[in-house]
Amino acid sequence: MVTLLTDRGMRAVDARVEGERLWLDAGALEDATGWALKPEGLCRDEACVPLPPGRQGEFVQGGRVDAAALWRHLDNPVVHDEARGIWVLGEGADERAASLASLIAPDFTLPDVNGRPHTLSDYRGRKVLLVSWASW
Fold this sequence. Notes:
Distance between the termini: 30 Å
Radius of gyration: 18 Å
Structural class: alpha+beta
Largest sheet: 4 strands, mixed
Number of strands: 13
């Protein structure tokens, strides 16, 4: 079991870790990332990435997909902490640049001082002041 962080959030997933490889069941990969294993390759929404000829075994083995290999193939960052079992599949530079250019903040939910959660998208169209602080 590992903790996986993606653009879809954080979740615990059953995975097999082999060094820099993160083998997930195809269904778990789709749930966590939106990427589905299909006959034409790995697909998310309308985009499909064919598996490189002769290298399919690097990406898919016995119904499992190496999520880290897919992410690297897409030129997206992969970071993991082996001791804690945490993997981060980050967004690529193109996606981050597009987000910054749009000037739309990513959606998130945080609790107020009374513990009541507030989601940024609930305030779309209204001015919002965010104040943050960190001890480090």
